[in-house]
Write a structure and sequence with these properties.
There is one protein chain. By secondary structure, the protein is an alpha/beta fold. It has two domains: 336 residues, TIM Barrel (Alpha-Beta Barrel), CATH 3.20.20; 115 residues, no CATH class. It is 41% helix and 19% strand. It has 19 helices and 20 strands. The strands form five sheets. An eight-stranded parallel β-sheet has the order 6-5-4-11-10-9-8-7. A five-stranded mixed β-sheet has the order 17-16-15-19-20. Strands 1-2-3 form a three-stranded antiparallel β-sheet. Strand 12 and strand 13 form a beta hairpin. Helix 2 runs parallel beside helix 5, helix 6 runs parallel beside helix 7 and helix 14 runs antiparallel to helix 15. The chain binds zinc ion.
Length: 478
Amino acid sequence: MFEILDKDVMGRICRIETRYGKIETPALLPVINPNIPFIDAKDMMNFGAEALMTNAYILYRTAKDDVIEKGVHRFLGVDLPIMMDSGAYQTMVYGDVEISNKEIVEFQVLAKSDIVVPLDIPTPPDADKNLAEKELKITLERELEAKSIVKDQLLTLPIQGSTYLDLRRMAAIEAKKIGGDIYAIGAVVPLLDTYRFSDIAKIILEVRSVIRVEPLHLFGCGHPMIFAMAVALGCDLFDSAAYALYARDDRYMTVYGTKKLSEIHYFPCECPVCVKFSPKEMMEMEKDERAKLVAEHNLYVSFSEIRKIKQAIKEGSFFEFVEKRIRSHPQLLSGWRKIKDHWKILEESDPRVKKRFLYCGIESIYRPAIKRHVEAMKNVEFPEVVKVSTNFGILAEIYLKPVFGPVAIELLESYPAGHAEIPEDVEDEAYLVAVENLKELMKINKKTKFIIYVDKKWIDYLKDLPENGEIHVLPGET
Ligand SMILES: [Zn+2]
């Protein structure tokens, strides 16, 4: 039911087969509340939706028999795969719901939902740990119960555990034992709303280190500013009620963050709404008319970002894409930098060969291509004496390059070192990592003498070299 078509960083383009058709991921599922019609479910295809999400709890309470009789697709009047959310969000907002897990799962089956979600308990961030553990235990029992009920549909198993990484890990291990078709990280919306992107990144990475291959959904994550980072960390599915919730408060989404409509003078967007109207015209409209237009824009910008991400994965430039996106908010930078601690899963997922390596900032140093280059250099055999130079005007066996460090001439034409664009005035970190890589190479080639010719700007970084090194400073400008 699931196939990986393309990979880059830890992101993927996958195909998920449902009973109602295929979903290509990364995918965003707009959330439809049938009782508050805002943008019609059948119009969602026009924005690029390949599947929808709706709420089982609300449908059960308000239109149970009708939904079971017609089936949820006909009830909503759409020709797309549908995922039902159990009502876990409602338990978070309104306290406990009065419907049992068994009832809500059976309802989803009878309603012919394509993707079924058990009634999990979304423990909020920073909850008491005993409570988080207790609620997680209940969630896992309900998942086991759902597994015995769901036969033909795809089953999503939510992974809870609040902000406790050990609980999230345990939840992922236990959910995997139960065996879902899709796994979903739950209760992250409060983290998103408060820009705690580091916590989100840590949770995704922890879960991804257990759920290595299967599709992963980030529940409630519907803001385009986080899509790139989340996909790059391994998320495949998103759902968005945010497009409508934000629109009701005149909040206009961009990939760089949210803006208040009243503070926008010029729309930074090419969608049909933003091309047709000016912000001033929209502010003068009736509230409902305006909200619908802002919601449309929010959907356009969200789906456009998903397409850009997919294109970047296809062309192998997803690192470059993410490293640009994370610059839109300091907390995104901080979130992305967590990949440093998860080198192993990143290394396993990221393709070994790409067209280019464009340096986009110090985060580029974390790319697996650099460590792989260092490994490749360990396999090169050197004579008793080798010449190393930072200047390509000097004939040498090894050239010293910021970010990569030593590059043997036989690797000068190939990816990554040979296909890298690095600015001349690159950050200190890029020199420091290069020197560390040189030192490592010198240590494992103890019997080789390294005669190193360097431009003046390298001198400050070349400290504490092993004894088999000899430095000559080249004349010229610093
Ligand atoms: Zn727009």
